[in-house]
Design brief:
By secondary structure, the chain is an alpha/beta fold. The protein has 12 helices and 11 strands. The model has no long low-confidence stretch (mean pLDDT about 95).
């Protein structure tokens, strides 16, 4: 058996201006340790997922969590960064340490404080995750706007489908008290450009874009030989990382080849396929990304991802509900926290403790976290062992 997640914590996501970056880290970590029943003194190593890129002044944040308890002083702590997949980078680094035997109990935190900057400042910071030699003058909304434009050119205008994805994820977020935006929006609002839903990067409207959020999530990962000591345990049937070229000029931007490879490898490693998954949490930084991820995971053929929305497959109650948490679109996207948040909420689903978000009878959960425009790709298949 692989290492197991045995406890988790999750702050609310949102514009948390009254909480500092350090306070968010400590709050999520404390909740995870308490949930697992692990004393701070028993932690062997700490991994922090944090993108930053100038959004806060904390460029050396790995040891901030040590302030949680005096007994954590001198515990090894490492910051992991891989753009919007920084949280998953921290999880996978902890998994490697537990597998290698250098840690039996690992604490993983993902955190970001984005609202220290205004929207223009955040947009510039996030643009640091693109290929500076060729893309330094392009924002991520513009990057995904270009992707959407090319996709539309190849496969037809998908604006209505993107609007329906936004509606779906906002509806799902209504059941998630941790979500940044618990507000239902209707199809007409999402599908039309208006003063409250302006065009951001054609053909993407504001409702096609994820949120600027603050927040943190954390988990405790332990070696399988001690997992039975904990009241809940979720293991990794697979955990695959695939990185692709950074320059968009070297990739087919309508194919998400790196993500597709990650999904394929994860399914092979898990000994399961897309039809075996009971739910998925995927990286909908923009609605076009979610649409194309349907195809990358093999749910629908290339160019026909819209069918998964039209036939109800990805809806709550469908055969593969996607982003029951509300996704990045409505739950929020504090960049370094996102990958950890996805795994935490998937673990809750598998343990039957997702409350109003719960997918009935969930046994296998799929998590996909993406850094940049399909560059750093992390795909996990999770299952509960207790």
């Amino acid at each position: 058996m692989e290492p197991c997640i045995v406890g988790w914590g999750h702050t609310k996501f949102g514009a948390l201006r009254e909480q500092t970056f350090e306070e968010l880290i400590i709050a999520a970590a404390r909740e995870a340790l308490d949930h697992a029943g692990v004393a701070p003194a028993d932690v062997d190593g700490i991994w922090l997922g944090h993108f930053n890129s100038g959004m806060v002044g904390d460029a050396f944040a790995s040891s901030l969590v040590l302030a949680l308890d005096e007994t954590m002083r001198f515990v090894p702590a490492t910051r992991c960064e891989n753009a919007c997949a920084s949280g998953s980078a921290a999880i996978y680094s902890a998994l490697d340490a537990v597998r290698a035997g250098s840690a039996r109990i690992a604490l993983v935190i993902g955190a970001e404080k984005m609202t220290e900057l205004d929207t223009a400042g955040v947009t510039k910071a996030l643009a640091g995750a693109s290929y500076q030699k060729e893309e330094s003058d392009v924002s991520f909304p513009q990057i995904f706007g270009r992707i959407a434009g090319q996709y539309f050119q190849n496969f037809g205008d998908q604006s209505e489908t993107l609007a329906r994805i936004a509606v779906k994820n906002h509806e799902n977020a209504m059941a998630n008290p941790l979500a940044h935006l618990q507000k239902a929006v209707n199809f007409s609002f999402c599908n039309n450009v208006s003063e409250k839903n302006p065009m951001i990067a054609p053909p993407l409207r504001m409702t096609d874009c994820s949120l600027i959020s603050d927040g943190a999530a954390a988990m405790v990962i332990v070696s399988p030989d001690i997992a039975q000591e904990f009241p809940q345990a979720v293991t990794f049937r697979s955990a695959v990382q695939v990185n692709d070229f950074l320059p968009m000029s070297r990739r087919d931007m309508t194919a998400l080849e790196g993500p597709a490879r990650a999904f394929g490898m994860a399914f092979e490693q898990a000994g399961a396929g897309i039809d075996d998954m009971d739910f998925a949490e995927v990286h909908d930084c923009f609605t076009i990304a979610e649409l194309m991820i349907y195809e990358a995971m093999g749910l629908k053929p290339k160019g026909r991802g819209a069918e998964a929305v039209a036939d109800g497959t990805v809806m709550k109650g469908g055969s593969l509900p996607v982003n029951l948490s509300g996704g990045l679109k409505a739950k929020g996207h504090p960049v370094g926290a996102t990958g950890v948040s996805m795994h935490v909420l998937a673990a809750r689903q598998l343990c039957g403790t997702a409350d109003e978000m719960q997918a009935e009878g969930a046994e296998l959960g799929l998590v996909f976290n993406m850094g940049g425009s399909g560059v750093a790709n992390y795909c996990s298949v999770l299952e509960a062992v207790r």
